[in-house]
Specification:
Elements lengths: L2 E2 L3 E5 L3 H18 L4 H8 L1 H6 L4 E7 L6 E10 L3 E9 L8 H15 L4 E6 L4 H9 L2 E3 L16 E5 L1
Parallel strand pairs: 5-6
Antiparallel strand pairs: 1-2, 2-3, 3-4, 4-5, 6-8, 7-8
């Protein structure tokens, strides 16, 4: 699976270097806007064991060309009954405004379907208005907390959405 724009390619996480970029990109925005929780550290610190081995995936967006720098990422967390959570989307501040977030969301939706997903949800926060707009453009709609397929969910998530 590969998604690309003129200068960015999105593909599945493939190395420890990709995993390190996944951690760093997410740590930056979460720490800046919220508090990095223990569950964040656990998932970000072991994406192969905590996400990929459980049937999910992490997608990274990298610059095409010689640098190959990872400038964005998004995770698909697998749950029972073919349910996936879209999570941990991040784009490096210097790379924002280039359509990378939109590219990541489209790639993640397609990947969830390829993994057999029948339901895709996410939690976000009103502080992340640009991300909410991208999710809505991709077909996500707001849902009440009681529609979440999980009981213990991030306290910072005050906007819950599901792909319709």
């Amino acid at each position: 699976m590969s998604y690309a724009s003129a200068s960015i390619e999105v593909s599945s996480i493939a190395s420890q270097s990709d995993a390190d970029a996944f951690y760093a990109l997410n740590e930056e925005w979460i720490s800046r806007l919220f508090t990095l929780e223990d569950e964040d550290r656990a998932v970000l610190g072991d994406p192969f064991g905590r996400i990929v081995a459980s049937g999910g995936d992490v997608l990274v967006a990298r610059e095409l060309g010689s640098s190959g720098t990872v400038v964005g990422c998004i995770a698909l967390l697998a749950y029972p009954d073919d349910v996936f959570e879209l999570a941990k989307m991040a784009v490096a501040p210097a790379a924002q405004g280039r359509g990378i977030g939109r590219l990541l969301i489209v790639a993640a939706i397609d990947r969830a379907k390829a993994l057999g997903g029948t339901r895709l949800f996410l939690g976000t926060n009103t502080k992340l208005a640009p991300a909410i707009h991208l999710y809505e453009d991709a077909g996500f709609v707001r849902i009440p907390r009681n529609r979440l397929p999980v009981s213990d969910y991030y306290a910072r998530a005050d906007v819950l959405m599901e792909l319709m």
